[in-house]
Design brief:
Elements (H helix, E strand, L loop, with lengths): L1 H15 L2 H26 L4 E2 L2 E2 H13 L1 H4 L6 H8 L1 H6 L5 H31 L8 H27 L8 H15 L10 H7 L9 H8 L4 H36 L2
Antiparallel strand pairs: 1-2
Helix pairs in contact: 1-7, 2-3, 2-7, 3-7, 7-8, 8-11, 8-12
């Protein structure tokens, strides 16, 4: 655990070293967040509530979705793949540390730094200029924080699995891009899943993707409660644990393949 913590801290320091990149990312995310808020405002028109979401809820949704882009690395994450193609993976595998936890520690540091540098400023801006919806109790804040941590775990495991394809394929960039594209549509990042037909929403929840974005945001907004709240949190936890186990199994198979190719 001490090594995990040290790797995490080093990753945070690395992120803090690129402040200009963080500022550029912040303004880019904020711009598209405002654009999405404007589009939803126009779509709502005179209506105040659509499929259980008020206009304030919808605007808050866009803010949170934009705020967690960096935290969840929703658009790209190719570091593991690049280490395989550069040969650095050989050094990483002989380190006295679990390969999955090695990358998890790095990604946790990156995620926390991005949440502070980009996520929080976006939400502060939204709170200042919009009438956003906020959790109404300490319990709701606690559950949201827990589900946000699970969302990161699911996101990391998914990205880890995508990158592991490089153990078998000479150029896995296409697979990674398709995987990211899939997660945008099925997670609720582009649009709240409540806006889609019920059959499509049910289809999405057969995958882990809604638990990357939609679950945490709806809990933040307070539109999920009672038995449904317990159900979605339990399902999110199951997906988080399941993807960790799948990642370990695929990693073991990938390592055997890597060794064979290396002679």
């Amino acid at each position: 655990m001490n090594i995990f913590f040290q790797i995490c801290v080093k990753s945070i320091q690395k992120q803090l070293a690129y402040q200009k990149a963080a500022i550029a990312g912040l303004f880019t995310n904020l711009f598209f967040g405002l654009l999405r808020a404007a589009v939803l405002t126009a779509l709502y028109g005179s209506r105040n509530i659509v499929t259980g979401l008020s206009l304030d809820n919808a605007i808050t949704y866009t803010g949170i979705a934009q705020a967690i882009i960096g935290f969840l690395s929703l658009f790209s994450w190719y570091e593991l793949m690049q280490s395989v193609y550069s040969g650095a993976v050989a050094t990483d595998l002989v380190k006295p540390f679990n390969y999955y936890r090695f990358w998890m520690a790095q990604d946790l540091g990156r995620a926390l730094a991005q949440l502070v540098l980009r996520g929080l400023p976006i939400m502060v801006f939204y709170a200042l200029f919009f009438d956003i919806t906020l959790p109404t109790s300490g319990q709701q804040w606690l559950i949201f924080t827990f589900t946000l941590a699970l969302a990161w775990s699911i996101s990391f495991s998914w990205r880890f699995l995508l990158n592991l394809s490089s153990f078998w394929i000479p150029n896995a960039v296409g697979i990674l891009r398709f995987g990211f594209l899939l997660s945008w549509f099925l997670s609720g990042f582009l649009m709240p899943l409540r806006y889609f037909p019920e059959w499509f929403t049910k289809l999405c929840y057969l995958t882990p993707f809604p638990h990357m974005v939609n679950t945490s945001v709806e809990i933040f907004l307070g539109v999920v409660d009672g038995a449904n709240l317990i159900k979605v949190v339990v399902m999110q936890l199951i997906w988080a644990i399941g993807l960790i186990l799948i990642s370990q199994l695929v990693l073991k198979s990938g390592i055997r393949r890597l060794v064979i190719l290396g002679g």
